[in-house]
Amino acid sequence: MKVFHIEAFTNTPNFGNPAGVVLSADNLQEDEMLNIAKRVGFNETVFVHQSTVANFKLKYFTPGHEINLCGHATMAAMHCLKSNGLINENPISIETNVGILPIFFEGSSQELIRMQQGNPEFIPFTGSIERLIG
């Protein structure tokens, strides 16, 4: 299993927001992706799958669980896909747990990547306010 270490939001090594990227994840089960994310140890690892409704499907895992969307991991995946010659069109779309989102590549080298975030979801806080502020 090849996991790319990509740092988003920087051109300087070790100064960005790191993410693991697995480009060919179609045959991985959820528990395998979680185990890989634990072993990688970054806040997020993104797994790239084929999609029937978008150019790619992305699944995001922390070392503890799956999350719906991660901005810096999306940027890392797009950079990795583009660098490996797997993206040749602009814009593209990605399938995520929050829906299908557009991705745009800009600039002369197309290294500037713009994405749409999912719609916010507001849920009531049911935890301890004392522990939250303490």
Task: Write up what this structure looks like.
The chain has helices at 30-40, 71-83, 129-133; strands at 4-8, 17-22, 45-49, 56-61, 66-67, 92-96, 99-106, 112-115. Strands 1, 2, 3, 4, 5, 6, 7 and 8 form an eight-stranded mixed sheet that branches. It is an alpha+beta fold and 134 residues long. It has a single domain, classed as Roll (Diaminopimelate Epimerase, Chain A, domain 1). It contains three helices and eight strands, in the order E-E-H-E-E-E-H-E-E-E-H.
Summarize the entry for a quick read.
By secondary structure, the protein is α+β, with helices and mostly antiparallel strands.
Structural descriptors:
Diaminopimelate Epimerase, Chain A, domain 1; 8-stranded mixed beta sheet; globular; alpha+beta; 31% strand; 134 residues; 8 strands
